[in-house]
Amino acid sequence: MAWNDGLIARRAPWARVTRPARPFDIERIRPDDRPDDRPEDTAGGSEGFGGTRGETEPAAGPGNRTRDGRAGESGSASPAQDLPAAPVPPPPHTGFSRPLRTRLEALRELVGLSAARLDAHTLTEAGHVLDEAVARHRLSLDHTVVALAGAGGSGKSTLFNALAGAPVSEAGIRRPTTTAPLACTWSDGADGLLDRLGVPSALRRRAPHHPREQRPGLAPDPQPGDAGGPAPGLDGLVLLDLPDHDSAVPGHRRQVDRLLGLVDAVVWVVDPEKYADAVLHERYLRPLAGYDEVTFVALNQTDRLPGDAVHRVLHDLRRLLDEDGLAVGEHGEPGAVVLALSALTGEGVGELRDQLARFVAARTAAERRLAADVDGAADRLAPVCLAEGWTGLSARGREEFEDRLAASVGAAAAGQAAERAWLSRAEQACGTPWTRLRHRRAAGRSPVPRAAAMPAADGPAAGSALGGDAACPGPDAPVTVPAATAEAGTAPDSATGTDTGTGSGEPGARAARAVVEQAVRTLAGDATAGLPEPWARAVLDTAVSGTEGLAEALDRAAARPLPGVRPARPRWWAAVSATQWLLLMLQAAAAVWLVAVLTAGPAGDWPPPALLLAAASLGGPLLARVCRLAARGPARLHGRDTERWLRDASAACGRSRVLEPVAAELLRYREARAQHAVTAFGPGRL
């Protein structure tokens, strides 16, 4: 008898079962993985794992009813028309459907992408689902493995015998009665499944196939509630009688737990005394709530209940199942089948047999079970794969990172120093000889060699364009003093050529390293905001790994000579320098002329030499002033080129060591999240 209660029959949130972890081998599941040589399902158009499954209905006739319940009509008056037509066997099941194959493939990709990022237990559980899918696909999909599970004294063995139509399992009052799993099959070809389940050959039985009308005490046609022999629809059923899940023998519980993770469906046999047992609900039914479509719950021993007590107990059982989150199938909705029966008297056994017959005939139990396994794996992976509010690495975050790296090498200060150095060189080249001599004496050193005083010209020694190893040199790259710094007349303490004022360079290096570390921490914080903890840790580890040696690489990149983007020395500098020397000689000549005129007497013509001396003396500083004004534009451009080059060099180092690895890790997470969506919801979500 079945119980209908529309208030309780609602879809409940799916809980998931967590099976013991074990090593796995992530393997791509392909149609050719199955070694059997069963023919393809040409009737259903299936391919590979399966696809569209064909279903062939029995021919209509007097002995068969069509789907609308009407008896078939025959046009002939043959005596054979009174005999039932032989049922047409369903086509062989050749594989899983395309949606399930897609979800399994997505789960395989997800596990591969998450390797070394998620904890081993989570990955092992997901890999176990893949292993079981491969193992189940290689075995017969035309058979459905159904286990009878329950507590001691619930009547599992008695129900097993009633379904088998013969006393194949020992039933008695001794506990535990069943000490090892016993199997009963209705058709050939299930040996591989039984080997996988670990059922010994001595405990394998075959259901008897004698006609009902030959069994004494039974009517020729099956009647509702009849506990007689096996129905034809049970062909393909593999029925297991499991030990008690509450057995005092520890090995029995381990056997039950192992087999529950391998069978296609479970019939939970409960009795009026133990149907509310906390162990049953908390250890099994609640964690297995997501497997409602492959779950049957049979309230046995109803013959012990008086009157309408069966309905009250069944109603309370359904209430408990609803609290466990196990959706009950009612009114055409998918879900668990709940019914009441008495294996001893046979009442309700026929209904259970009919339910199992329809369930086995659909040839979808294994796929439903695996789909529930994939659902469970997706639910367990959801907290470590789905991020709320995560936006990724923003363009603003990248720009701020590059700005901080540029500040760490002193790009702006180096540009300003390069501009001042250019002006200083222009003043020395275009100034008066007296001004040059004064600057050299003030510096307290000899004139800087020409090769060091000018920017490096184009050539191998000038470095190469930014990018690759040239932009971010390795630890063995030589360190050279920037030309602008060498010309400026100061001994550089830092790689950027700016004087730290300490004479050792160590404080400057420490300050740059602190700026670099702060830049990396800020970038990692921006990239991991909202990420699940395992992936955020992976991104942070990637960023920290790139930080090692980044400060030194920035120093080496900043110390490389500036590429010869400008002429080594403007030509007009030489012309101005020659003019300054010419004016100096004119000053000397005019001075000699003036002295000679003045010593000749007061009547001498002194104005011409005086005017020449004055013009030559004023012309030199005036020319130097004009040249300094003219040099400001090129000096400003040179400073900008220097700053831009340092910014590009520092950004190239940051990209190669931090930004690109972090971006690759974030891209890996995006792909993992997309594969999780396909795993959880099926194709069309990628």
UniProtKB/TrEMBL annotation:
Entry GO CC: cytosol
Record has Metal-binding as a keyword: no
Annotated segments matching region Disordered: 12-98, 206-237, 434-508
The keyword Nucleotide-binding appears for this protein: yes
Protein name: ATP-binding protein
Annotated GO MF terms: ATP binding; GTP binding; ribosomal small subunit binding; rRNA binding
Domain spans labelled G: 146-276
